[in-house]
Amino acid sequence: MHALVHAPAESRHLLSGNEAVARAAWEAGVRVAAAYPGTPATEILEYIARYPDIYSEWSVNEKVSVEVAIGASLAGSRALAAMKHVGMNVASDAFMTQSLAGVVGGLVIVVADDVGLSSSQNEQDSRYWGRFGHLPILEPADSQEAYEMVQRAFDLSEEYEVPVIVRMTTRVCHVKAMVTFAGERVERHAAGFQKNPRRWVMTPANAKPRLPLMHERDQKFRELTETIDLNIAFSGSDRRVGFITSGPAFMHVRETFPNAPVLKLGFSYPPPLEKIRAFAGQVDTLVVVEETEPLLETEIRAAGLEVRGKDLLPRFGELAPSVLRPAIKPLLGEPYEVPHRPQADVFPRPPTMCASCPHLGPYFALSHIRNLNIIGDIGCYTLGAGHPWNALDTCTCMGASLSMAHGMDKGRGESDEKKSIVAVIGDSTFLHMGMQGLLNMIYNRGNVTVLLLDNRSVGMTGGQENPGTGLDLHGMEAPRVDFAKLAEALGVRPERIRMVDPYELPTIVKLVREETKMEEPSVIITNRPCSLTDRFERFQSYTVIDEKCTGCGNCIDLGCPAITVARRETTTTKSGKSKELVFARIDANTCTGCHMCVETCAPEAIIQPQPQNRVIRIHAHA
Amino acid sequence: MRDGITNLLVVGIGGQGVMTAAEMLARTALSQGYDVKKTEVAGMAQRGGVVSSHVRFGPKVYSPQIEPGEADLLIGFEAAEALRWVSHLRPTGVAMVNTLRLTPPIVSAGLYDYPTDPIGVLAAAGIEVHAFDAGAIAEELGNPKLVNTIMLGAISDYLPFPAEALESCIVEGFRAYKPQLVEINIRAFAAGRAAGHGSG
What we know:
The complex is a heterodimer. By secondary structure, chain A is an alpha/beta fold. Chain A folds into four domains: 3-227, Thiamin diphosphate (ThDP)-binding fold, Pyr/PP domains (Rossmann fold), CATH 3.40.50; 232-332, Rossmann fold, CATH 3.40.50; 360-526, Rossmann fold (3-Layer(aba) Sandwich), CATH 3.40.50.970; 543-613, Alpha-Beta Plaits, CATH 3.30.70. The two termini of chain A are 42 Å apart. Chain B is of the alpha/beta class. Chain B has one domain (2-195): Pyruvate-ferredoxin oxidoreductase, PFOR, domain III (Pyruvate-ferredoxin Oxidoreductase, domain 3, 3-Layer(aba) Sandwich). Chain B has helices spanning 18-31, 79-84, 105-108, 118-124, 134-141, 147-155, 163-177, 182-195, and strands spanning 6-13, 35-40, 50-58, 71-76, 89-98, 128-132. Chain B has a six-stranded mixed beta sheet with strand order 2-3-1-4-5-6, sandwiched between helices. Chain B is globular, with a radius of gyration of 16 Å. The chains are: A alpha/beta, B alpha/beta. At the A-B interface, strand 8, helix 11 and strand 20 of A face helix 1, strand 2, helix 2 and helix 3 of B.
């Protein structure tokens, strides 16, 4: 059991923002918590799972997680859903209407923006959802505030019968800082679902009378935001510039301009316009420092105040003292020169697939087959777009591969005439939002070859469970979906559902060739686990016999990080052409003995020093 | 150390134990009564990418990130990674570098070059550099995973608190979860501490 679960009130801890949210949820008496993994929010549910008083689950997607939380709330229980920024797009259908109907038990949605795109396909400002959904937004700046604000969010949610959004960013979720626990869990009575069709059945006739109530509620929040103690003015001796800020940007402002007045908005939507007006009167120039869109700035300007913001500061990416200083110093009449610092020109080190990653085989195949348009999805396999495979042509959002591939098939242009369309998707992404695309493709008589890379893991976020792994959030056995049966139930003909061991390179190359020639949809399903999870079995490493290596470089094309170049030589072919030979070496510590590279080696130069631990094959079944 | 804040930058590659080392430093600073912040961007780090962990401590810490030119101590688990962050060191800063060279596939494939002498470039920038082969020491002690403790031992005399505080933080962690590894980690810490005084 994790030590924090029993940590008493008054104790101090070094916690990430995500851990602080979990502890706050526990203290607040949350009874149901749900999420789909997504950086930087993933750990919230992983930490909540350590508190046995809370029912917690990995939901199949973010919309489902919010709906689970809504259901629990209507039964009178406090409930929490957590997600990354793009998850909110998926979940929005649920909360946009529930914001109209309202809630019973406190309902808090924690959304984490990946400002600076450390592990995301775009950068979004989730504070927009407050304006769009008529919901209040709370913005913690560090772990202590995350801990306090999540508890406040539950109180507000119940008092105003509305879902409340707690907006985090990477620099709150993943920063560890001091947190002092104020209390311990308070159990809250849940009365059970009270039937009331006029309130909970959102037909037009029932929804319409809720609209004026929602606007009345907005007015109450506009009053509350002026007085709530989450919006704090810090006085400062240097009044040339006063800052309005929220979230972790506050920390950068305090770090850079410790003597400047600051109005920190913890309850940032709706913004306290009167408070801002009073603050503006005390400073020469008002500057809004916000990540990432100019939301506060626009509203402050609309209220008739003169304000600076994105005309000085960047429109995207993380803020930091090194960003604020050059932007603000000239405003103070203090010219700023970037100090000279030693710079190093070091090669980039992009993320790679792992040794014995079961995605290596499929990408080896895709990179060796011509005339494919390869429509990708979100997961580790997105790395297939990079070196050395260059075998992924699109990546947009969760589940998009199948539907985009279908659309590309239907909308074929001149250069696509002789090409086959392939969709690549992982197990968890398929279950999240991909299977609808497959159903759609079947229903509409499309023709796409689907590579369903089942590594029994949500790999990119750190190996979480999903309905295809056989385990739940708590590591307990759970019903496991059968992907082949699922594909068949959606309408793929059984002959076109092919199970394959991704380590068997010749087989997978042959299968992809065969299936892309078919005039109907196929699903090729791989069956090896992610090599970073406990399901993966490590075998004895391989080595290259240097005298036998001919320098063909085939094994290097696999993209396995255990295989590196030992040396290069230039030779002349019979036809007189110059040819570069690349001799390989295998790092024994990194190699896990998956044997994929052996399949690429014609001269049999790759061997196991003691071959008794030959890898045990998983038998492919149709 | 401006405003009494100490900035430690721990860098390396996903899977090397960079974040664990940073965690140990943060916990020790906490035990010494400092306000502490620690940050890293780890989203895709376990797949061979660059990892950097920032540890800041002092009377009161606001921003969690170490700015360019502000690191007091750079702890590099790999030679080229240490060089990558040279712009973040103070001119008076100290770099403690493991001489290990890890070549990524794109270098192996000939698309980029690995710097010939990363330690030399660091030293030429006027920085106090201590470099040694932590892997060799770990191997001598019989466990390659000891590199982490060796690197922590190496920097333990460059911190504003006693080396013993860091050592006991590491040892307590092992005593709680893997008591059989306590002795060997004490030896690794001592070996690292001795190596950290060399000039490389």
